[in-house]
Amino acid sequence: MYNYQNKNLDYYNYNNDNFNQPLYTEDANANTLFDPYQGFIRGNMFPNLYNTYKLNQPLDITPMNEREQLLMFLDALSFATIDINLYLDLYQNDKDMIALFNQYRMEANKLRNEYESKYGPILVDSDASNVYPWAWDNRPWPWENK
After folding, report:
1. Average pLDDT of the residues in 129-143
2. Which of 20, 39, 55, 134 is 20 to 30 A off residue 128, Cα-Cα?
C-alpha cells in the first residue's frame, strides 16, 4: 500500500491567492449573502468565499425577452437553493439559512409555475406535462431566437 503520509506534499502547501479555502466563516449568515442573481453570476452565494480570480466584475446577463428573463431568474433561484443547501449540509441547525432556503425554494417553484403556464413545461416531470407527457419537447427551444 502506498504511504502518502511520508511523502513531501509541497503542492498542497503552496500560497495561492486565487485559491478559495472551502471553509465557511462564522459571519456566514442569511443577511450577508449575495442576492440570488448576484450569487448566480458569481457562482457563489457567500461573499467571503467569492474570489474574483481573473474577472474583477462578473458579467451581467441581459435577457432579450420575458421568457429569457423568467429562465434567468429561475436559474438564479435554483442556484441559490443549491448553494445554501451545501452550506446546510454542514450547519443543519442554522434556522435563518433554513428559512432563506425555503423562501428561495418557494419563489423558484412559483416562478417555474409561471414560466410553465406561459411557455409550457420546463422539466419532464412537470405538472404542466400531464396533458401531453412529451410537451416539454415543443419548439422553440430557449436558444432558438424565436
Report:
1. 61
2. 39
* Residue 95 grid coordinates: 434556522
Helix axis angle for 66-90 and 95-119, nearest 10°, is 150
- Flag whether 28 is in a domain: no
HSE, CB side, 13 Å, CA atoms: give it for residue 93: 0
- The count of structural domains within the chain is 1
Q: In whole angstroms, what is the distance from residue 5 CA to residue 53 CA?
A: 31
What range defines the domain where residue 119 resides?
Answer: 37-45+63-146
Task: Give how far Cα 36 sits from Cα of 39, 88, 89, 103, 142, Å.
Answer: 5, 16, 19, 11, 21
The answer as to whether 111 is a domain residue is yes
**Amino acid code (one letter) for 64:** M
Query: Averaged over 22-37, what is the pLDDT?
Result: 73
Nearby residues of 44 by Cβ (< 8 Å), 6 or more positions away: 34, 50, 83
| CB of 65 closer than 8 Å to CB of 106 | no
Torsion angle defined by CA atoms of residues 109, 114, 118 and 120, in that order, rounded to the nearest 10 degrees: 10
Whether 128 is in a domain gets the answer: yes
